[in-house]
Write a structure and sequence with these properties.
This protein is of the alpha+beta class. Strands 9-16-15-14-10-13 form a six-stranded mixed sheet, covered by helices on one side. A four-stranded antiparallel sheet has the order 1-8-6-3, with no helix packed on it. The protein is elongated, with a radius of gyration of 25 Å. The N and C termini lie far apart (63 Å).
């Protein structure tokens, strides 16, 4: 007999994950805790360790397949068990019985994602069946030419699919309430011009400090981590900035630069994105005065930052021209009421205007 190995619960927003690649072939010995396969979730690609020790008899799920928690993905012969699978257990149609395909370079995977190409369907023309850049571009061209006449090609990456499902879930489940405030950016501009910090870092810091003072926004979390929205080639990523309340904006700025580099390389993993409770989205580099940010399913709120506009500001005695940006806070009204939202955005405004982010 053999023992079924089941897909563990990966703790994802989605009901299923993608088994990207097997790290062991049928007949290989597997040690408890040894990396056995890779999965892709809404948080990135990560290795999954074997929950059983023994010999991998059958791989029941093909690379690229979607799998739910608890589904049988392999049969393991544990020490002392006979070398046979239980009656009726047959491997799913998969490439496991064929020679293993050559490993695919990260740059080729990134290109395939960008062009919407499923690498499982691409025949490699390189040495030993290696998939080349030309193979991916040829497959992308074939997909485009196969689109209906007059219809634009709508190739979406796996990451875009995940984002689409997340925002759809958020729209269905969350009764959202919005509050907007105008913030004087004079102090923030001075800090930015000294190259001490980016505007993204300033608002992440301000949000982190405010979150530490408003428990309803963080759901009792001890670690308060803030996600920052990053746009790479029309793909949206939301990596985590860890514990921004206790760090300087300059330090946060350096971390965001590193996260952007990882996002460009499509190298963000689960450890880079999980555990956040709040999102900051900044479109201030565009002529966007204000907008409403979508709240991620696992978050309670999101802050949207619009562009700076030089605006007349009066204190009743005199009028000056000041750089003003609009902040819009979106909150899940099931947990956060309007008064709490107003106090929170007022606190963020105070932090930015007084320079308490440095």
């Amino acid at each position: 007999m053999a023992t079924p190995l089941r897909m563990p619960d990966m703790g994802t927003v989605e009901g299923q994950v993608t088994l990207v690649r097997w790290l062991k072939a049928e007949g290989d010995n597997v040690a408890l805790g040894e990396p056995l396969f890779e999965v892709e979730t809404d948080k990135g690609v990560s290795e999954v360790e074997a929950a059983l020790a023994g010999v991998l008899l059958r791989r029941m799920v093909a690379a690229g397949a979607r799998v739910g928690a608890g589904e049988t993905i392999a049969m393991i012969r544990r020490p002392g068990e006979p070398d046979e699978a239980p009656a009726g257990a047959a491997p799913a149609a998969s490439p496991s019985s064929s020679p293993a395909r050559p490993r695919i370079a990260p740059t080729i995977r990134a290109l395939a994602e960008k062009r919407g190409v499923n690498l499982e369907t691409v025949r490699g023309t390189g040495p030993g069946g290696l998939i080349t850049r030309e193979d991916v571009l040829k497959a992308a061209g074939a997909a485009t030419s196969a689109a209906p006449s007059g219809a634009p090609a709508q190739a979406r990456t796996r990451n875009q699919d995940i984002v689409a499902r997340k925002v759809s879930q958020s729209h269905r489940e969350k009764p959202v309430f919005h509050v907007t405030a105008r913030v004087d950016m004079t102090t923030a501009i001075a800090c930015h011009q000294k190259q001490a910090a980016s505007y993204d870092a300033i608002f992440v810091k301000a949000a982190g400090v405010a979150l530490a003072e408003f428990p309803a926004f963080v759901g009792g979390r001890e670690a308060i981590d803030v996600a920052i929205a990053i746009d790479i080639d029309d793909d949206l990523f939301a990596p985590a900035v860890r514990s921004p309340a206790s760090r300087s904006a300059a330090d946060i700025s350096r971390e965001i630069e590193a996260l952007v580099s990882k996002a460009k390389a499509r190298a963000l993993g689960p450890a880079d994105v999980e555990g956040t409770c709040f999102l900051v989205s900044n479109l201030g580099m565009f002529p966007v005065e204000s907008f409403d940010a979508v709240i991620y399913p696992e978050h309670s709120a999101a802050l949207a930052v619009g562009s700076m506009i030089h605006t007349p500001v009066s204190d009743g005695m005199s009028t000056v021209i000041a750089p003003i940006a609009s902040l819009t806070l979106s909150v899940d009204h099931r947990f956060i009421n309007g008064r709490a939202a107003a106090r929170f955005i007022a606190r963020v405004k105070q932090i930015v205007e007084t320079g308490a982010f440095e």
